[in-house]
Amino acid sequence: MVLEKLSDSLKNTLQKIASSVFVDEKLINELVKDIQRALLQADVNVSLVFDLTKGIKDRIKNEETPGGLTKKEHLINIVYDELVSFLGKEGHKIEVTQKPFKIMLVGLFGSGKTTTTGKLARFFTKRGNKVALVGLDVHRPAAMDQLEQVANNAKVPYFIDKKEKDPIKIWRKSKDEYDNFDVLLIDTAGRDALSSELIEEIENVTDEIKPDEKLLVISADIGQTAQTQAEQFHKSCAITGVVATKMDGTAKAGGALSACAVTGAPIKFIGVGERIDDLETFNPPGFVSRLLGMGDLEALLEKAKGAISEEEAEDMGKKFLKGDFNLIDLYEQMEAMKKMGPLNKLVEMVPGFSQFKLPKEALNVQQGKLEKWKFIMQSMTKDELERPDEVISTGRIDRIASGSGIGAKEVRELIKQYRQSKKMVKMMKGSGDVNKMMQKFSGQVPKGM
Ligand code: GDP
Ligand code: MG
User: Which ligand sits nearest to residue 111's alpha carbon?
Assistant: First the structure.
């Protein structure tokens, strides 16, 4: 996952709290030191770190523990709350409010604008919007070829001009076509730094296009220096949001995220890899609960929306939370997850799963098994599918095995998988709930899951 090291340190810290006997000054000081160390290692600016931990300490000192919470739970709640505020408090979704909705991407060379254009094309297409790309990067040689490739990969139309050197002229050339689309994604040229020349170009293009969103694409691997960049762009180009790319493969992303948050330019998306699906909406509460190992059901549902219908997604979420599901549900969930992308990425987002450190092989096996499961399930009676625990006996396993032409071992494996998932689903119930988290931390969870 992104920020794995920070996440591990923070989880360790919370675990320390959970397993301590008293909440006393010593524990609190240790907690604060741990958090400081973890954030500094993630390249968060020193004064931001001190502000944050001072806030945490003050709250611990001044707040009464609310009824119904233990002191430890209250402590964890404060850490969670403060980290969420630290990263911008709430998510800022982009609503497509008019047609065509124009989203322009700006940023320095190599920050990931063109790549993100393709990812956003996929993002909005999945949500049912008709999308086209417009390439206005007239500076970088081969920029137009890259955009062409990106558009083809995203399977959306594109408007470019490989010879024209004036971005305004390129934009005007295809103006009649734009009304055919719900979302236009406009890629622009970068520079090595935010020069007056770049500001002027962005201003001119803005005047002409009047974008509904102007997103600054910023590479998270620059860490806390993102602050100056975000501030400058915020001031001179009136950006409406930030996309922080390359969140994967950098330990400095904490610095970049917190730096953007202080400039007041909301982070709307994060890029988490080079592939077209490696884009996530950014939502501080979900992000922090994932960091702390509390899972992120909302991100999962968000992702599910693209691949399956909203109803299906909601159903799936409800079943996860309800904690009772049968074999058919298990199958449907696995199938839905397959549609959504690599299981191991998704599993991080399911509340509770991230705690269990599932072996990678186990997840791959699950994906490969779907076909066989389908055959096995086709050989089951309705009753067996709906109430497997009650009705499937050894004798029935043999019957199902011969009926499906798949070995009894596999049938048993499916049942085992079902039982494990059911158990997990039960534990996920009420995720984000501090109570449950404390239980998990204090080790009241079956090992090996
Ligand atoms: P531009 O100059 O701003 O248009 O940047 P590009 O879109 O051409 O991206 C520059 C490089 O960054 C390319 O090699 C991309 O594959 C890479 N890149 C972009 N976004 C991400 C991301 O989220 N993760 C990783 N690992 N690489 C990325
Ligand atoms: Mg580019």
Answer: 1
**How many domains is the chain built from?**
3
What pLDDT shows up at residue 116? 98
In a domain, 43, yes or no: yes
Give residue 147 CA to ligand 1 midpoint distance, Å: 12
Are 315 and 121 in contact, with CB atoms under 8 Å apart?
A: no
Contact partners, residue 136, CB within 8 Å, separation at least 6: 167, 170, 171, 186, 187, 188, 189, 205
Q: What per-residue confidence (pLDDT) applies to 435?
A: 44
**Residue 100: DSSP 8-state:** S
User: Looking at the domain assignment, is residue 342 inside a domain?
Assistant: yes
- 57 and 183 within one domain: no
Residues 82 and 110 in one domain: no
Query: Which ligand has the minimum distance to the alpha carbon of residue 147?
Result: 2
Predicted local confidence at residue 310, as pLDDT: 52
Ligand 1 touching residue 119 (CB < 6 A) = no
271 lines ligand 1 (CB under 6 A): yes
Is there a single domain that holds both residue 173 and residue 78? no
Residue nearest to atom 9 of ligand 1 (CA): 112
Q: The domain that contains 200 carries what CATH number? A: 3.40.50.300
178 lines ligand 1 (CB under 6 A): no
Task: Identify whether the C-beta of residue 100 lies closer than 8 Å to the C-beta of residue 259.
Answer: no
* Same-domain pairing of 208 and 322: no
- 217 falls within a domain: yes
Binding site membership of 118 for ligand 1 (Cβ less than 6 Å): no
Model's pTM, two decimal places? 0.71
Divide the 449 residues of the chain into consecutive groups of 10 and give the mean pLDDT of each group: 86 81 87 94 94 94 81 84 91 94 97 98 94 96 95 97 96 97 97 92 96 96 92 90 94 92 91 94 88 62 51 58 64 63 56 49 56 80 82 88 86 84 61 46 36
**Looking at the domain assignment, is residue 346 inside a domain?**
yes
CA nearest neighbour of 60 among 29, 22, 18, 33: 29
Closest protein CA for atom 6 of ligand 1: 112
Give the per-residue pLDDT at 338. Answer: 60
Q: Which domain holds residue 241?
A: 101-282
Is residue 269 within 8 Å of residue 233, measured between CB atoms? no
* Residue 276 in contact with ligand 1 by CB distance below 6 A: no
